[in-house]
Design the sequence.
């Protein structure tokens, strides 16, 4: 898996102060996407164990209280990302049990594969659906277009 950016402190992509990982790989190619540089699965940097260890350390850092982890992209549920994302989410659940996990995906909840559903079973909030430029609304909370749905599982 590749990623385009990691922010150890983020207050924009979900509730509270968070760690945010922007993965690479997206097959939706939404017109008007603000993050087109993440579409190629091999864009950006190779995701390595040291980054995963840093994410866990940042989530557990008492100096800056973080509410949780945000996974965005690209698309964390792109087939090339699912195995690594599942591993990361399981590790966060195990080592940071008091943190929530948010995930943005262009896939809709009803169309997810079994592997993608395994990730969803371990997160707290899913924002699903492709960005649709004709339904864009900057006043929407946590989503770019009105067709997207915020699913809160906990």
Sequence:
């Amino acid at each position: 898996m590749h990623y385009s950016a990691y922010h150890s402190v983020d207050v924009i992509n979900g509730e509270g102060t968070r760690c945010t990982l922007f993965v690479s790989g997206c097959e939706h190619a939404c017109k008007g996407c603000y993050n087109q540089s993440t579409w190629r699965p091999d864009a950006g940097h190779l995701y390595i164990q040291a980054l995963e260890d840093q994410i866990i350390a940042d989530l557990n850092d008492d100096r800056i209280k973080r509410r949780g982890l945000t996974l965005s992209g690209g698309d964390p549920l792109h087939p090339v990302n699912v195995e690594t994302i599942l591993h990361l989410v399981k590790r966060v659940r195990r080592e940071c049990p008091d943190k929530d996990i948010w995930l943005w995906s262009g896939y809709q909840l009803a169309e997810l594969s079994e592997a993608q559903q395994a990730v969803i079973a371990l997160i707290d909030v899913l924002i699903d659906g492709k960005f649709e430029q004709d339904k864009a609304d900057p006043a929407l909370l946590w989503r770019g277009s009105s067709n997207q749905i915020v699913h809160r599982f906990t």
Observations:
- The mean pLDDT is 96.
- The first helix runs from residue 49 to 59.
- The first strand starts at residue 2 and ends at 10.
